[in-house]
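S1.2 Input.
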Amino acid sequence: MKIYTAADHAGFELKEAIIPLLNEIGYEVEDCGARELNTSDNYPEIIACAASRVSTDAGQGIESRAIVFGKSGQGEAMVANRFPGVRAAVYYGGNPEIVTLSRGHNDANALSLGADFLSKEEAEVAIRLWLGTPFSQDERHVFRIQQIEEVTRNSSEQ
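S1.3 Output.
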């Protein structure tokens, strides 16, 4: 499975530290940027690159994921969630069950990490949990994901 990564300056260092882990555990990684630390960059275009690729893959029935990094992860998730078929969850520490629930209940295909609130080790634990948790396929969760897609489609048509 392909993992798209993206980060602005606030998440750059953590992204760079995580890419080798993703390769090591067997994922194909496509880094959507930033390619160098630039304290004046802005996250929307950088994150959109990863989110658009997951969106395109989802539309073609190809399973892929994105892991994006920012200061809090909030704005990055907001950008990612604007793309059809992308379901981004935010994690910036605390109970790691949130990442397993994002996969098991919501089939999240993007994980937005708050780099200012996570150590590399905490991020690695969260990523391993997130990547290792399958979607439950429970009927109620499948239905809710279908609802998300429907309301998203309907709102864009208005």
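S1.4 Remarks. The chain has six helices and five strands.
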